[in-house]
Amino acid sequence: MLGKTAGGLFWMFRNLERSENTARLVEAGFRIALTRSTDSETEWKSVVTTAAVKDGYMQKYDTFNGPNVVDYLLRDKDNPSSVISVIESARTNARLVRTALTTEVWEAVNDNWMTVKDLLKRPVRETELPAVLATIRQQSALVRGALHGTMLRNDIYDFARIGTFLERADNTARIVDVKYYTLLPSASFVGSSLDNVQWETILRSVSAHRAFRWLDESEMTSAAIADFLILDRRLPRSLLFCTSQLVSNLGFLEEDYGQRHTCHDMADDLRARLKGRDINAIFEFGLHQFLLDFIRDNNALGTQIEADYRFYS
Amino acid sequence: MKEAQVHFDEMTTQDGGVRSPYNQYEKWFATQDATRLSKKSREAEAFFRRTGITFNVYGQAAAQERLIPFDLVPRILSNREWTKLSRGIEQRVRAINAFLHDIYNRQEILRAGRVPVELIAQNEAFLPQMIGVTPPGHVYTHIVGTDIVRTGEGDFFVLEDNARTPSGVSYMLENRETMLQMFPELFSKIKVKPVSDYPKNLRKSLAACAPRNCKGKPTVAVLTPGIHNSAYFEHSFLADQMGAELVEGHDLRVIDGCIAMRTTRGYKTIDVLYRRVDDDYLDPLNFRPDSMLGVPGIMDVYRAGNITIANAPGTGIADDKAIYSYMPDIVEFYTGEKALLKNVETYRCSEPDSLAYVLDNLADLVVKEVHGSGGYGMLVGPAASKKELAAFAAKLRAKPDNYIAQPTLSLSTVPIFVKKGLAPRHVDLRPFVLVSPQGINITPGGLTRVALKAGSLVVNSSQGGGTKDTWVLED
Fold first, then answer.
1. Does A131 touch chain B (CB under 8 A)?
2. What's the pLDDT score for residue B60?
3. Are B237 and B183 in contact (CB under 8 A)?
């Protein structure tokens, strides 16, 4: 496979994953703004921070309110991470790697682009927002379905998956980090209703609020939630799950190509930090620092994969 | 204004009868409901959008993608018509390859005085870098798209030879695919020669031209200028269908005297490069130094016999519009036979007598740039205003060598589907020809381009033309 093609696949799926994550973030922010009118500014601010676009946002707006944040995250082409920007970029990458995709995957991506472009042509009114967000997530699910259902399990698939899980791990780590203070056991308002709302937002941002209730019979505690999002091996958006997938897809490449690279060691190391770890030990180390380190090293892994598989040179 | 001409219609005779190739189709069409057909037509458009069969238009807003309008009435040729036509094309393509070999080697035809030396020596399409180079199997034009027009029952003319990098074959394939999906019942009733083997044949044909230094199974790649090129869809489509890599200049470099592409496992040698990049941009070391689309040093690799470039650099000298007028002589010179296909009468504006004639009769002629393509920079006299004619006359006087002129042909028409039913529109035909040491293969049919505006003679997709599926009957 061409290095350029591997890079195109990687970015195509990072972008698709990002579109879905952004939609989910907006959804969680919208929900909390609806249910708790008093402090919506703080909530929308944390949504923008989580999406890692605060600087760009501040250049355009002075305040964090629903309509501005929703518009910036969904429709603004000046925001390279907005849903419209990443879906367009995913589609451009798909055109670039057209020969590596099945017709089904290509058509799903192209259809995603046409549908979402049309949906976001005009500012989204509050009454339409839930339906718009649902469509964005559905479209992304269609691409994923086509990928799973029709693609050969070869290096093409591996690069697609590596892009997906690298982006997803980054996203989950950010969500937890932006709200890490509400998860600290030492926080004074533990068990208050404020906490419960905050925790629910976190879980909703990764579509895990129901899963949490199903899997964890114990009380909703900060340690249980942190454990779930960071160390659970079943939750498809937990850091351990994403990292394990990265190790496994990189492992297939190693086997296929008969070449082990620096990125393989880095991925192993990233997973070793999580596997078999006790959440209390992470709290003792410092949750915020732990997450910062993770985000940094996860990004470094991306850069190393880029170099090891010759995406650009 | 000229009085309305009577054009040859390929479906209907002047007294309202149906020509034989269209017999069965006409019967089927008569039973069809217009509303259903309109719906099918919209379905086809949605299908093209979804599959991304689009082209980019230069000079329009960035990233704008347009569809080439597709008309659902097929253009039908009988087996007999096709056999005659394809023999003529084959003869012409053989002659072109012999001509190219001669021009870049012994130049017998110049010595014999059949083609003037100045025409070659002063021609930008002639590449001195190709002198003395003989590509594998003496094949210069691996892929040709001969443009054919028709004016009567048996009157086929070659309009252009397109021996550089002809495009449009993806539309030929997708048009058939679309017709099969929309009207399967038609194909069970009427036996049409298939076209779907083209990508397989293209790959086989390219592989057969691998350089002599190639060991093992040849690696084939398609070189594209990138996703912003107007024909990018076709480039990726062909690479996909052939199972070949689609590469850009920055994926390639010269390693150990070979061209290699950067893969996830390191560099891999390419044996045959189907390039869709023009000569000028192919090698910044040998041609345009500012080109970002090519591969520095590829010409040296080529001359050393370590890669096959398809089509060979320098083939433009054979489809140059000034050379075109000599094609009947060229065919005769190399095949010893009279040309089977006619040439359109051509006035070379470089000759003073011709120039005078052209200037006097500008309103009745079509004038083309010698190196132009895509319908840009040409004048269609009968359709031009007085002002346009005057402006063009000035351009002609300033640079006569740059132009040739031809009479406006009474191009045949084929009906298209409109609201009111069928309406005749002018068409041309581009059959696709593959050349390898093993022989010449012409896909039955080709791409029919159709002018969608009533009376218009301009069929180019960049200027509002559409396409049709082209059928050659089995009979």
1. no
2. 46
3. no
Distance CA A1, CA B204 (A): 21
Q: What is the pTM of this model?
A: 0.89
> What are the tokens at A109?
């991506």
A106 — contact with chain B (CB < 8 Å)? Answer: yes
Q: Does A117 lie at the interface with B, CB-CB under 8 angstroms?
A: no
Q: What is the pLDDT of residues B444-465, one digit of tens each?
A: 999 999 999 988 888 887 777 8
Q: For residue B305, what is the DSSP state?
A: T
* Backbone dihedral angles phi then psi of residue A181, each to the nearest 5 degrees: -65, -30
**Alpha-carbon distances, residue B191 vs A139, B24, B77, B472 (angstroms):** 41, 10, 12, 9
> Is B247 at the interface with chain A, CB within 8 A?
yes
Parallel/antiparallel/unpaired status of strands B220-223 and B272-275: parallel
Report how far apart, in Å, the C-alpha atoms of B219 and of each of A98, A186, B200, B246 are.
Answer: 19, 64, 14, 12
Return the HEC string of B398-418: HCHHHEEEEECCCCCEEEEEE
- Chain A, 216 to 245: residues with Cβ < 8 Å from chain B are none
How many other CB atoms are found less than 10 A from the CB of residue A305? 26
Task: Identify which of A154, A159, A94, A82 has the alpha carbon closest to the alpha carbon of residue A124.
Answer: A82
The reply to whether residue B52 touches residue A114, judged by beta carbons under 8 angstroms, is no
Which residue, chain included where needed, has tokens 């891999």?
A: B268
DSSP letter (8 states) at residue B285: T
User: Which of A129, A170, A222, A149 is closest to A21 using CA atoms?
Assistant: A170
Question: What is the least distance, in Å, from the CA of A58 to any CA of chain B?
Answer: 29
Question: Angle at which helices A3-35 and A287-308 pack, to 10 degrees?
Answer: 150
Chain A interface includes B62 (CB < 8 A): no
Q: Do A4 and B240 touch (CB under 8 A)?
A: no
Nearest-by-Cβ selection for A2 from B49, B51, B245: B245
* Side-chain half-sphere exposure of B73, counting CA atoms within 13 A: 24
**B3 confidence band (pLDDT: 50, 70, 90):** very low
Contact B470, B429 (CB under 8 A): yes
**For the CA atoms of chain B, what is the radius of gyration?**
22
Residue A286: both structure tokens together:
């410092």
- DSSP-derived 3-state class of residue B188: helix
The whole-number pLDDT of residue B68 equals 85
Give the DSSP per-residue string, A268-299. HHHHHTTTT--HHHHHHH-HHHHHHHHHHHHH
Complete DSSP assignment for chain A: -BHHHHHHHHHHHHHHHHHHHHHHHHHHHHHHHHH--TTHHHHHHHHHHHTT-HHHHHHH-SS--HHHHHHHHHT-TTSTTSHHHHHHHHHHHHHHTGGGS-HHHHHHHHHHHHHHHHHTSSPPPTTTHHHHHHHHHHHHHHHHHHHHHHS-SSHHHHHHHHHHHHHHHHHHHHHHHHTHHHH-TT-TTTTSHHHHHHHHHHHHHTT-HHHHHHH--S---HHHHHHHHHH-SS-TTSHHHHHHHHHHHHHHHHHHHT---HHHHHHHHHHHTTTT--HHHHHHH-HHHHHHHHHHHHHHHHHHHHHHTTS--
pLDDT score, position A127: 92
**Total CB pairs under 8 A between chain A and B:** 60
Q: How many CB atoms lie within 10 A of CB A184?
A: 16
Using CA atoms, how far apart are residues A45 and B277, in angstroms rounded to an integer? 49
B3: number of Cβ within 10 Å: 5
Q: 3-class DSSP state for residue B87?
A: helix
- The span from the CA of A2 to the CA of A5, in Å, is 5
Inter-chain residue contact B262 with A313, CB threshold 8 Å: yes
**How many C-beta atoms surround the C-beta of residue A126 within 10 A?**
12
Whose structure tokens read 């005057």?
B390
pLDDT tens sequence across B421-444: 899 999 999 999 999 999 999 999
Q: Give the list of residues 6+ apart from residue B35 with CB closer than 8 angstroms, or none.
A: none
